Description:
With 362 residues, chain A is of the alpha/beta class. Chain A has helices spanning 18-26, 46-62, 77-89, 103-114, 211-214, 227-231, 242-259, 262-281, 307-319, 344-361, and strands at residues 7-8, 69-74, 96-100, 119-124, 146-149, 151-152, 157-158, 170-173, 188-194, 205-210, 287-288, 299-303, 322-323, 334-337. Chain A folds into 2 domains: 21-259, Type I PLP-dependent aspartate aminotransferase-like (Major domain) (Aspartate Aminotransferase, domain 2); 261-361, Aspartate Aminotransferase, domain 1, CATH 3.90.1150.
Amino acid sequence: MQYNRIYNFNAGPAVLPLSVLEEVKESFMNFSGSGMSITEISHRSKNFEVVINDAVSRTKRLLKLDGSYHVLFLQGGASLQFAMVPMNCLPDGKTADYVDTGTWAVKAIKEAKILGKNPKIVVSSKDKNYSYIPGNIKLSADAAYVHITSNNTIEGTQWCNFPDAKGIPLVADMSSDIMSRPFDSKPFGLIYAGAQKNIGPAGVCMVIIREDMLKLVPENLPSMLKYTTFSSSNSLYNTPPCFSIYIIQLVLKWLEEIIGGLDKMEAINKEKAELLYSAIDSGGFYRGTAEPGSRSLMNVTFRLPTEDLENIFVQEASKNSLGGLKGHRSVGGCRASIYNATTLEGVKALTDFMKYFEQKNG
Amino acid sequence: MQYNRIYNFNAGPAVLPLSVLEEVKESFMNFSGSGMSITEISHRSKNFEVVINDAVSRTKRLLKLDGSYHVLFLQGGASLQFAMVPMNCLPDGKTADYVDTGTWAVKAIKEAKILGKNPKIVVSSKDKNYSYIPGNIKLSADAAYVHITSNNTIEGTQWCNFPDAKGIPLVADMSSDIMSRPFDSKPFGLIYAGAQKNIGPAGVCMVIIREDMLKLVPENLPSMLKYTTFSSSNSLYNTPPCFSIYIIQLVLKWLEEIIGGLDKMEAINKEKAELLYSAIDSGGFYRGTAEPGSRSLMNVTFRLPTEDLENIFVQEASKNSLGGLKGHRSVGGCRASIYNATTLEGVKALTDFMKYFEQKNG
Lengths: 362, 362
């Protein structure tokens, strides 16, 4: 492959569009005629203003957000959001509903509890190793919000249709599938996403928050832990992670101008996922771990007949320029993360290898 | 200049060593034979382990830290540290001494107060617009720590000799002068520094913390706001800002291998600062704003006879490839930030321009 690159199936940080990387490289010593690298320009300069404003505008257009939403760029990843969400939006004395669909949902619940807040686990798919997305959820009528994890990176499941929260604001950790498909944003009061899977490199977390949620933010929080600090300063209260925001801007530009928007992106993602799940389902050698109706289009988790074969599979794949196929250490097995920037060509190379490996070892 | 670059005197994000930028660019499409960009590799990969471990080792060597110190990489900048320091290291019922030497010290004090903690301002140089570093400070015998700002980016002052805290741990915001000179680390319990001035790009904050300070960390803090979360995981509890840490590693390598360590770096920094202060002091046209004994070697702040002349100076300098000379909006005037990566050649170009401008307008 070009530049001797591999097909990268890592779960995050993950593959980025080749044209984005090339643009970063080409402009690296002198960004936009500034005479400085993007890593050296002031966050208060006109050049950077263009970058961050464009990233915000493209996010609003791609997700069809109405005027009541703010797009913010924070640091600390989704893990800090697990604490910031209840700190900012769960008033004392109120409860919030949490849907437990896996490792990251559990962490979100844990952080709310550390704060002395009252997260209520309304349903969990732990009974079957988080292999499915629960249906028919009974939500509390008085919850401040309903928290879900839209895609479960480790367990390989994804919400196909979001739950009807009946007017209670949905809060979603969309770290691993934001911008992978269109969805109706209206039920969402807050969306957060660590960038390093679908929209950029590590080091920045996108937060989309609605006006009514901002009104819940208490006055007496540390400045850097208040959403209002960021909403009132266009994320420029202090020095933001400029380089990571710049790459987000380029990825969103690629999504709009090269891919053609989220409908197109979803069609491509479906094509990639169908190809891969077909390869898994085609014989008895590979076995998908997620229930068919809950399968993720982003993280495809599967097992081989034995752990030994799984190890050999990952090693041999790596020798064939197919990287990052080991499952998360907490669940084992294999996982192919096929985010937006994964090409159909890459998935074909993987399914070809899977067929070859099955013939050799099956 | 090469790549049509300018001389960049921005206060932060700021200039980086040219050879570091070139190395980033050259390896950008395929980092260290991984077949992936540094922005795409897993933070749990061997390739990234090498990067972060090397950054930690070089920090320890450059600052001559003994085995009781941990070097951590966090997000949120120094601004989040203003809250994390008292959250982690100021037990309820105890007080901490704060030395007020300018804008950033004021913000640190403000965040401690928001938390309901008890920061005691033991001395302030506000009486003279923060133009000096106070001496003869009377510290509390029972303080949990003494907080100082080693270099005041906005006001252009710097501690020449750190105060004797008589065994009470010093805590220092060294954002704008870390790694610019050698110093005795032993009195310091905690040092923090946003990277974007002297050691890297925006998006990562270096925290150096001693074992005894870690013992103060309460159990019931959110995971991402506890120093122990980072010290027990080598800063890899969740996905760290990989790219920013990578640049820090390269900058520290440049400091050790090209510059030759902090003694050498300090000598160069002194030469640059002396050249610039001489140009300011040589006639009556320019006027330094900091008192001579408190002048910063990093941020050289000065005024011209009128504000109009200051504006023309900044504009004309910019046309002559000398960028970022406008003073901070809160204080006005001019400022040349001459961090480690600023070359002597750059400072000479600035002083030549200053002489020319003085002759024309003086």
